[in-house]
Design brief:
Helix content is 51%, strand content 17%. By secondary structure, the protein is of the alpha+beta class. Helix 2 crosses helix 5. It starts with a helix and ends with a helix.
Length: 156
């Protein structure tokens, strides 16, 4: 009997340890993030699309504002995916790739990679747990500013 009790206690410890070492992003929080980013862009006068992905690149939340171009649907996802996958902002990745010809081929890693500013990684305790991507503002720096508004919700 004591052996079974010990096994039961150890199994709870293992589950608890797993939960602590594998942080994830909830759909509810992802929804708040996309709405905050979209609101920031709307306040700035931009019609955009926003996506939040988990660390595996799966979409958790997305929105397309009225009047946003149809191309923004694809770019928002690819920017979010790229920032989560590469573990850095897509703007920083674009700057690095521009300076190093060997990195120009990064976009060939897969159909979802987009080396264009507007995607930011979502990190928790130094670990990337997702990405947020914006498409449709009149410049990548404006896409990124809206993504920052979404990250602000996550940090609070």
């Amino acid at each position: 009997m004591m052996k079974y009790l010990l096994l039961l206690i150890l199994s709870f410890c293992t589950v608890s340890l797993y939960a602590q070492t594998n942080p994830s992003l909830s759909m509810a929080l992802a929804n708040k993030m996309v709405l905050a980013a979209a609101q920031q862009c709307e306040n700035d006068g931009y019609k955009v699309s926003v996506a939040v992905v988990d660390k595996g690149g799966v979409i958790l939340a997305q929105v397309r504002m009225d009047g946003a171009g149809v191309h923004t649907i694809e770019s928002r996802f690819r920017k979010a995916y790229t920032s989560a996958s590469m573990r850095m902002s897509t703007q920083k990745l674009a700057q690095i790739a521009a300076k190093d010809p060997e990195l120009q081929g990064l976009h060939r890693l897969g159909n979802n990679i987009l080396i264009l500013g507007g995607g930011l990684p979502i990190t928790l305790n130094g670990e990337v747990i997702g990405g947020i991507g914006i498409g449709g503002a009149p410049g990548t720096q404006f896409d990124e500013a809206c993504a920052e508004a979404g990250l602000k919700v996550f940090r609070n």
